[in-house]
UniProtKB/TrEMBL annotation:
<keyword id="KW-0677">Repeat</keyword>
<protein>
    <submittedName>
        <fullName>Receptor like protein 3-like</fullName>
    </submittedName>
</protein>
<keyword id="KW-0472">Membrane</keyword>
<dbReference type="InterPro" id="IPR051502">
    <property type="entry name" value="RLP_Defense_Trigger"/>
</dbReference>
<dbReference type="InterPro" id="IPR001611">
    <property type="entry name" value="Leu-rich_rpt"/>
</dbReference>
<dbReference type="GO" id="GO:0016020">
    <property type="term" value="C:membrane"/>
</dbReference>
<keyword id="KW-1133">Transmembrane helix</keyword>
<keyword id="KW-0325">Glycoprotein</keyword>
<comment type="similarity">
    <text>Belongs to the RLP family.</text>
</comment>
<dbReference type="Pfam" id="PF00560">
    <property type="entry name" value="LRR_1"/>
</dbReference>
<dbReference type="Pfam" id="PF13855">
    <property type="entry name" value="LRR_8"/>
</dbReference>
<keyword id="KW-0812">Transmembrane</keyword>
<dbReference type="InterPro" id="IPR032675">
    <property type="entry name" value="LRR_dom_sf"/>
</dbReference>
<keyword id="KW-0433">Leucine-rich repeat</keyword>
Amino acid sequence: MSFGNATVPFYATDREKLYTLVLLVVMQLRTKNLHLSFGSDRFQLLSELDLSCNQLTGQIPHELGDLHGLRSLNLSHNHLNGLIPESFQKLQNIESLDISNNNLSGQIPLELQDLHSLAVFNVSYNNLSGRALEKGQFCTFDGSSYKGNPYLTWDKSLRPIYK
Protein backbone atom coordinates (compact mmCIF):
# COMPACT_ATOMS: atom_id res chain seq x y z
CA MET A 1 0.00 0.00 0.00
CA SER A 2 1.25 3.47 -0.78
CA PHE A 3 0.21 5.45 2.28
CA GLY A 4 2.19 8.66 2.36
CA ASN A 5 5.66 7.46 3.20
CA ALA A 6 4.22 4.11 4.27
CA THR A 7 4.32 1.03 2.10
CA VAL A 8 2.68 -2.34 2.52
CA PRO A 9 3.04 -5.08 -0.12
CA PHE A 10 0.02 -5.73 -2.33
CA TYR A 11 -0.98 -9.36 -2.78
CA ALA A 12 -4.49 -9.13 -4.25
CA THR A 13 -5.16 -11.00 -7.48
CA ASP A 14 -7.31 -8.45 -9.27
CA ARG A 15 -5.89 -5.02 -8.53
CA GLU A 16 -7.55 -3.29 -11.49
CA LYS A 17 -11.05 -4.08 -10.24
CA LEU A 18 -10.32 -2.27 -6.99
CA TYR A 19 -9.44 0.93 -8.85
CA THR A 20 -12.71 0.91 -10.79
CA LEU A 21 -14.86 1.14 -7.65
CA VAL A 22 -15.96 4.70 -8.33
CA LEU A 23 -19.08 4.47 -6.16
CA LEU A 24 -17.33 2.90 -3.20
CA VAL A 25 -18.90 4.19 -0.01
CA VAL A 26 -17.45 2.03 2.79
CA MET A 27 -13.97 0.52 2.83
CA GLN A 28 -12.76 -1.70 5.63
CA LEU A 29 -9.25 -3.05 5.15
CA ARG A 30 -8.29 -4.51 8.47
CA THR A 31 -5.17 -6.65 8.32
CA LYS A 32 -5.18 -6.77 4.53
CA ASN A 33 -2.24 -6.24 2.18
CA LEU A 34 -3.03 -3.85 -0.60
CA HIS A 35 -1.87 -0.88 -2.66
CA LEU A 36 -3.97 2.29 -2.70
CA SER A 37 -3.39 5.88 -3.63
CA PHE A 38 -5.84 8.43 -2.27
CA GLY A 39 -4.70 11.24 -4.56
CA SER A 40 -7.42 10.77 -7.18
CA ASP A 41 -11.17 11.36 -7.45
CA ARG A 42 -11.89 7.64 -7.16
CA PHE A 43 -12.63 7.78 -3.45
CA GLN A 44 -14.59 11.04 -3.21
CA LEU A 45 -17.84 9.28 -2.23
CA LEU A 46 -16.16 7.20 0.45
CA SER A 47 -17.94 7.71 3.76
CA GLU A 48 -16.12 5.20 5.99
CA LEU A 49 -12.48 4.18 5.86
CA ASP A 50 -11.11 1.63 8.32
CA LEU A 51 -7.39 0.91 7.96
CA SER A 52 -6.90 -0.14 11.58
CA CYS A 53 -4.63 -3.02 12.61
CA ASN A 54 -2.60 -3.04 9.37
CA GLN A 55 0.91 -2.42 10.73
CA LEU A 56 1.10 0.71 8.57
CA THR A 57 4.23 2.81 8.98
CA GLY A 58 5.18 6.33 7.95
CA GLN A 59 3.18 9.53 8.10
CA ILE A 60 -0.54 9.93 7.61
CA PRO A 61 -0.98 11.21 4.04
CA HIS A 62 -2.42 14.72 3.91
CA GLU A 63 -4.51 13.61 0.90
CA LEU A 64 -6.92 11.90 3.30
CA GLY A 65 -8.16 15.40 4.10
CA ASP A 66 -9.41 15.62 0.51
CA LEU A 67 -11.93 12.81 1.08
CA HIS A 68 -14.70 15.28 1.86
CA GLY A 69 -17.41 12.63 2.14
CA LEU A 70 -15.72 10.79 5.01
CA ARG A 71 -17.87 10.37 8.10
CA SER A 72 -15.63 7.82 9.81
CA LEU A 73 -11.84 7.39 9.65
CA ASN A 74 -10.08 4.70 11.68
CA LEU A 75 -6.28 4.48 11.46
CA SER A 76 -5.81 3.03 14.93
CA HIS A 77 -3.42 0.27 15.99
CA ASN A 78 -0.75 0.89 13.37
CA HIS A 79 2.79 2.28 13.53
CA LEU A 80 2.09 5.69 12.00
CA ASN A 81 4.34 8.57 13.02
CA GLY A 82 4.71 12.28 12.41
CA LEU A 83 2.06 14.93 12.89
CA ILE A 84 -1.70 14.83 12.64
CA PRO A 85 -2.30 16.38 9.20
CA GLU A 86 -3.78 19.88 9.25
CA SER A 87 -5.67 18.81 6.11
CA PHE A 88 -8.04 16.91 8.42
CA GLN A 89 -9.73 20.29 8.99
CA LYS A 90 -11.31 19.81 5.54
CA LEU A 91 -13.19 16.70 6.73
CA GLN A 92 -16.29 18.75 7.53
CA ASN A 93 -18.59 15.68 7.59
CA ILE A 94 -16.39 13.59 9.87
CA GLU A 95 -18.26 12.11 12.84
CA SER A 96 -15.65 9.64 14.08
CA LEU A 97 -11.86 10.01 13.99
CA ASP A 98 -9.75 7.29 15.62
CA ILE A 99 -5.98 7.59 15.25
CA SER A 100 -5.15 5.97 18.58
CA ASN A 101 -2.37 3.50 19.29
CA ASN A 102 0.22 4.86 16.86
CA ASN A 103 3.43 6.86 17.26
CA LEU A 104 2.04 10.28 16.34
CA SER A 105 3.77 13.32 17.80
CA GLY A 106 3.36 17.09 17.93
CA GLN A 107 0.23 18.98 18.84
CA ILE A 108 -3.36 18.38 17.86
CA PRO A 109 -3.99 20.95 15.08
CA LEU A 110 -6.13 23.85 16.30
CA GLU A 111 -8.02 23.79 13.00
CA LEU A 112 -9.71 20.54 14.05
CA GLN A 113 -11.88 22.58 16.44
CA ASP A 114 -13.95 23.53 13.39
CA LEU A 115 -15.10 19.93 12.86
CA HIS A 116 -18.59 20.47 14.24
CA SER A 117 -19.91 17.00 13.30
CA LEU A 118 -17.21 15.19 15.25
CA ALA A 119 -18.79 12.98 17.93
CA VAL A 120 -16.01 10.41 18.47
CA PHE A 121 -12.36 11.43 18.77
CA ASN A 122 -9.56 9.16 19.95
CA VAL A 123 -5.85 10.01 19.94
CA SER A 124 -4.95 7.89 22.96
CA TYR A 125 -1.61 6.09 23.18
CA ASN A 126 0.51 8.26 20.93
CA ASN A 127 3.29 10.73 21.74
CA LEU A 128 1.27 13.93 21.39
CA SER A 129 2.28 17.07 23.25
CA GLY A 130 0.87 20.48 24.08
CA ARG A 131 -2.66 21.04 25.29
CA ALA A 132 -5.80 19.17 24.28
CA LEU A 133 -8.30 21.21 22.28
CA GLU A 134 -11.09 22.73 24.34
CA LYS A 135 -13.47 24.44 21.91
CA GLY A 136 -16.37 23.17 19.87
CA GLN A 137 -16.95 19.44 20.01
CA PHE A 138 -13.64 18.93 21.81
CA CYS A 139 -15.06 20.12 25.12
CA THR A 140 -17.33 17.03 25.10
CA PHE A 141 -14.56 14.41 24.88
CA ASP A 142 -13.42 12.92 28.18
CA GLY A 143 -9.88 12.01 29.15
CA SER A 144 -10.08 8.54 27.61
CA SER A 145 -9.69 10.23 24.22
CA TYR A 146 -6.26 11.48 25.28
CA LYS A 147 -4.80 8.96 27.76
CA GLY A 148 -1.39 7.45 27.08
CA ASN A 149 0.11 10.71 25.77
CA PRO A 150 2.58 11.65 28.52
CA TYR A 151 3.28 15.13 27.10
CA LEU A 152 -0.33 16.10 26.38
CA THR A 153 -2.20 18.10 29.01
CA TRP A 154 -5.90 18.76 29.49
CA ASP A 155 -8.19 19.98 32.23
CA LYS A 156 -8.67 16.73 34.12
CA SER A 157 -11.33 18.27 36.36
CA LEU A 158 -13.55 18.82 33.32
CA ARG A 159 -12.58 15.67 31.46
CA PRO A 160 -11.55 12.84 33.77
CA ILE A 161 -10.31 9.55 32.36
CA TYR A 162 -13.08 6.96 32.38
CA LYS A 163 -11.89 3.38 32.27
